Amino acid sequence: MVAFYQERSSPRLTCAIIGNVVIPGGHGSNATTPRISRNLRWKTLASAIAARGTAPGIQLATAWEGYAGARSFRPTDWTETIARGRALAATVSPNRLQRLFLGLRIGTELAAEAGFRHVQLHAAHGYLFSLLLDSRLYDGAADCLALVAAWAQASRKAGLETSLRISLKTGDERFDRHGTTVFQDKASELPIDIVDVSSGFYNIDKRLIYPSLAAVLQERHRETAALASRHPATQFILSGRASAAVRVFPDNVHLGLCRDLLANPQFLYERSHGCQNSGKCHYYSRGTESVTCARWLV
Question: How far apart are CA 247 and CA 266, in angstroms?
Answer without folding.
Answer: 24
